[in-house]
Amino acid sequence: MPPNIPAYGPPITLEEAKRVMAAAEKHAEKKNWPMVIAIVDGHGLLLMLTRHDQAQHGSVVIAQEKARTAADFRRPTKVFQDLLAGGGAALRILAMPNALPMEGGLPILKEGKVIGAIGVSGMQSNEDAEVGQAGIDAL
Questions:
Q1: Is residue 48 in some structural domain?
Q2: Measured distance CA(94)–CA(88) in Å, rounded
Q3: Contact (CB, 8 A) for 27 and 134
Q4: SS (H, E, C) the chain
Q5: Are 86 and 65 in contact (CB under 8 A)?
Q6: How confident is the model over 55-75, as pLDDT tens digits?
Q7: Residue closest to 44 by CA, chosen among 64, 26, 60, 27
């Protein structure tokens, strides 16, 4: 196992996903941000999705892809965004069909292991990540 990359654990339960989703929705609503929020299990398979009124339609797919990328690679999608910003050899990330290099996808950890991920889309990427982290913090 590469250093600093968590192992996979048992998949997130529906009850855990509901807690994460409720906290993320509450945070987005408090900020008055129309968001799409997706939660996937550790295999990147969709478990829950919420689309707020007036959330942009394109965010439905983007939120799911952010969540799937975070689960598949066991790291926040911001890692890929930051690598791209550096240019050079990191630009090969653009050729990876299964990696969305936009902040807003976060792995969900339990006992240090990846049990799922959350992906958020609708505002600036850092604001998407803020909503996702608010959801994770509910666990």
A1: yes
A2: 12
A3: yes
A4: CCCCCCCECCCCCHHHHHHHHHHHHHHHHHHCCCCEEEEEECCCCEEEEEECCCCCCCHHHHHHHHHHHHHHHCCCCHHHHHHHHHCHHHHHHHHCCCCCCCCCEEEEEECCEEEEEEEEECCCHHHHHHHHHHHHHCC
A5: no
A6: 999 999 999 999 999 999 999
A7: 64
Q: Kindly report the pTM of this predicted structure.
A: 0.96
Number of CB atoms found within 10 A of residue 139's CB: 14
Integer Cα distance of 22 and 13 in angstroms: 14
Domain extent for 70: 14-137
Residue position matching structure tokens 């975070």? 70
- The CATH number linked to 125 is 3.30.450.150
1 has pLDDT over 60: no
